[in-house]
Amino acid sequence: MENTNEKETGLTRFNGKNTSADTIEGQLDNLIALLSKEPLDYMQTSHLEEKINTLTDLLNNENNHSTQLYNIKLETSSAKKYNFAKRVSRIIRMIIAVLLILLGFGMIIMPAPEYFEMFTLFYLNPNDGVTIMDVISLIVAFTGVSLLISAILKFNNGLVK
Prior knowledge:
Order of helices and strands: HHHEEH
Helix content: 55-70%
Distance between the termini: 57 Å
Strand content: 5-15%
Largest sheet: 2 strands, antiparallel
Strand order of the largest sheet: 1-2
């Protein structure tokens, strides 16, 4: 039996007292019927509005989760294509880096013609020294090293999981 101090309104009956275990849609139909029969005061209206807002938020979150899962299933093929393209570009970057390193050191080791060796910056002996061509070769080699290091460190970063 209900508490005698509590006035029985449509809101208290909807909260679970005197209702059978119907479907959610049936409960909502009962609520609409009760609200159309009995007007509510301001406090009851604000309390009911808070509950309806909570229910709406729950339904929106549930719909968002199912939509997100559906989007994840659809986007896996595009994510695989993206990851494949990203890895291929990083492998190509590694190959270019190794080629730059080999080119830089090859330019230092291989003798260059006299007209190609511009100015000597430091003389090691009267016949040989560090030329501008050697400095350019070192810059090319160190650019390849830095490119290789960055490609290796970023190989698995930035991929779609």
